[in-house]
Specification:
- The complex is a heterodimer.
- Chain A is mainly β.
- Chain A has no helices and eleven strands.
- In chain A, strands 2, 4, 5, 6, 9, 10 and 11 form a seven-stranded mixed β-sheet that branches.
- In chain A, a hairpin with a 4-residue loop joins strand 5 and strand 6.
- Chain A is globular, with a radius of gyration of 13 Å.
- Chain B is mostly beta strands.
- In chain B, the strands form two sheets. In chain B, strands 2, 4, 5, 6, 9, 10 and 11 form a seven-stranded mixed β-sheet that branches.
- Classes of the chains: A mainly beta, B mainly beta.
């Protein structure tokens, strides 16, 4: 069974960099699929951030592309997310998920990241 | 980018009711549409993919239809555990986009 788990700091100061890791178990990232990040501000809808293939090929949401970097660590079987120059608008629950070409499944449980001084 | 417009944004219904949620795409996406259910504090759960294919383990009271630009999610005979938020998502092209969501509440 494939399981994803997000981890990282829960509180980030404005203008700093948000960094999260998604650890995958039950499946080797290097075996295939795109792996993505999605976020959800409190009380709002879902926003796709971007995704990465094990080869390193990436796709990003144009609205975030200038501030976002997604990378993959196949030896550690994880993917990472960095969002630069954060503001309060980046406060959200951040999820990682596997993109299977038909949808996103499975998802991690999500982690709430708050941007505040 | 492909925009997805869901309607209604809010739906009030009773146990046993039949409800339909619509998702319209700003351009044709064939059948590259998925539906998710999300309960408070939980990650979204994939219900339907390829517009009409039920994910394994999803009850048959859920169904999806449509192609091109107009899609529907129908839930027949609502159960208490169905009261949640629902999102459509297009996977036809990057960037992946979601509808704004439909909140289904008990009347």
């Amino acid at each position: 069974q494939v399981h994803l788990q997000e981890s990282g700091p829960r509180l980030v100061k404005p203008s700093e960099t948000l960094s999260l890791t998604c650890t995958v178990s039950g499946y080797f990232i290097s075996s295939g699929y795109y792996w993505g990040w999605i976020r959800q501000p409190p009380g709002k809808g879902l926003e796709w951030i971007g995704s990465i293939f094990h080869s390193g090929n990436t796709h990003y949401n144009p609205s975030l592309k200038s501030r976002v970097t997604i990378s993959v660590g196949t030896s550690q079987n994880h993917l990472s997310l960095k969002v630069n120059s954060v503001t309060a608008a980046d406060t959200a629950v951040y999820y990682c998920a596997r993109e299977n070409g038909q949808g996103l499944d499975p998802w991690g449980q999500g982690t709430l990241v708050t941007v505040s001084s | 980018d492909i925009q997805l417009t869901q309607s209604p944004s809010f739906l009030s219904a009773s146990v046993g009711d039949r409800v339909t949620i619509t998702c319209r795409a700003s351009q044709g996406i064939s059948n590259y549409l998925a539906w998710y259910q999300q309960k408070p504090g939980k990650a979204p759960k994939l219900l339907i993919y390829a517009a009409s294919t039920l994910e394994r383990g999803v009850p048959s009271r859920f169904s999806g239809s449509g192609s091109g630009t107009e899609f529907t999610l129908t839930i027949t005979s609502l159960q208490p555990e169905d009261f949640a938020s629902y999102y459509c998502q297009q996977v036809n092209s990057y960037p992946i986009t979601f509808g704004q969501g439909t909140r289904l509440e008990i009347k």
